[in-house]
Amino acid sequence: MANTFEIEIATPEKRVVRRQAETAQIPGKDGYMGILPGHAALLSELGDGTLSITSGGVTEDFHVIGGYVEVRDDHVRVAADRVG
Fold it and tell me: What are the pLDDT tens digits along the chain (84 aa)?
């Protein structure tokens, strides 16, 4: 099992971030999801809230509004309506 996974956050206008991460906290429609390497595949609607990515011991936060998240094969794709 890998120690990281790739996470990509994009809006209809642009790619906001693409990097390797150790953990992520993603706001789902029904609450927050914790993502670690090796996470089971999933497809979920995003809620409005703070998406946190931790890489190299540093955490970066993004405010996401609406959209979807897909987790598959150590790759997380966040397709947000808006990112602030």
Answer: 579 999 999 999 999 999 999 999 999 999 999 999 999 999 999 999 999 999 999 999 999 999 999 999 999 999 999 998
CATH code assigned to 5-83: 2.60.15.10
Residue type, 37: P
The 10 Å CB-count burial string (b at 16+, else e) for 32-63 is ebebeeebeeeeeebbebebbbeeeeeeeebe
5 CB-contact burial (10 Å; exposed 0-12 / middle 13-18 / buried 19+):
buried
Query: Which residues sit opposite 17 in a β-bridge?
Result: 9
